[in-house]
Amino acid sequence: MKIGTTWGIMAKKILKTRFLSFLLIFFLYLTALAAAIFTYVRLIEFHPLLSTFIANIAGTLVVWLFGIIFKNSSLYDPYWSVAPIIIIIFWVMRSNTLTHASLLFLAAFIIWGSRLTFNWAIRWKGIGHQDWRYTFFKKKSPKMWFLTNLFGINLMPTVIVFLALIPAYYATLLENPLNNLAIAGFLICLGSVATQLISDRQLDIFKKSSPEKHIDKGLWKYCRHPNYLGEISFWWGIWLMQLGMIPTLWVTIIGPLMMTLLFIFISIPLMEMHILETKPDYSQYKKQVHMILPGLRKKIARVSTTNN
Fold first, then answer.
1. Can you give the pTM of this predicted structure?
2. Is the pLDDT of residue 303 over 70?
3. Helical ranges in the chain per DSSP H
4. 2 or 117, which is more confident?
């Protein structure tokens, strides 16, 4: 038996409790942060965006390696919400200027990231629990698992989130006064976090009372994935905040655009495929309710019925 495999089995036996599992996550992320800081310092002469990006990749690779050792790719999951908070704090500190814009960006990311991380923490069952999606990919294409794990599960999300963070980098460098568009973007961010909070809470309550059914109540009555809608909307809100301060910097739209495509073409279809396997009546719900745009599919259905 390989040493890595032996260590992974022993570690899983030791880390049976959630408390010890969280200690592992804490140590892991401290190690990833140390690797990122070390990398950044070595690249201090590079452009700040490039050096931060490479440092971010270094931190991701540490998490990936721990995932291999413990045979659990879900160790990466909190990286999605933890890394942006650290990066935005670093960018604000580096700018040496605490502007109103910086405060809004800090508030937006801390509120969003803290809620999302807490939501992950209360759902995570421990080191022995891996997200069903990762297990699905591994079983479906075992020969491709190494690349899928490295690039699809770890590096791709890191790159997309970083692209979506770039608007915040440029906006926090300036002392431009806030305008209505920037404030509207911030309010969208807050509304997005509220949407995620409410929809996740509704989902948890529904699963406890009706585990054999799919949820179609509350916010889920208006679109099939209000939690994902909240996540997508948050990044568009960040971009609008930057656009309000730097109207000519349109190219940063690639960040929220890539984020939207990630959910529409990967995350949501995979989730719905999983739901349909255990809840066949979900197909009818799909026909009546739009993926992420509230009420759109129902309106289209009514128009079609009227015309016929």
1. 0.91
2. no
3. 3-14, 18-42, 48-69, 79-95, 100-123, 132-140, 145-147, 156-173, 180-209, 226-245, 254-262, 268-278, 282-288, 296-307
4. 117
